Write the structure tokens for this entry.
Amino acid sequence: MELNKAQNEFIQTWGALGSSWGIPKSMAQIHALLITSPSGLSTEEIMDRIQLSRGNVNINVRELVNWKLVSKKNVLGERKEFFVAHHDIWGIAKNIVTERKKRELLPIKELLASLKDENIDGPKEDVEHFSSMINELEEFVLQMDQLTELLIKMNDNKFFKKMIKMLA
């Protein structure tokens, strides 16, 4: 298979996966393009390769920079900015976990803690069921929070690989 065709297939698949994970398809496609490119690409090169508008590329590249998955790179003699993906897969995974934790896990953790502290009025059976579910969800979320912290703090994936082998 030709490199360009293989990259296109990867870009399309990564975009579809990103979409199913709640990440905009175009953001995932840009990320896939950049991680398969050994050096930086300009906005125009990204636009041309994936057939996206300048605004779409700019918004999604900015978000990838916020997620610490992509960095800006200036090239001497060039007026345009170039964008380079971080190529350390373990680092990419940690950055994604950190960002998802911040955006998804922490808000639900805070909500569950505040609901647990509330004095809920209503039919006794319904209140007990609601409170029980909130407690179970809070316990689960706390365990997920601890798991994500463990993953984020790991320096390499040797331990994680061993753990997965033991569980498999």
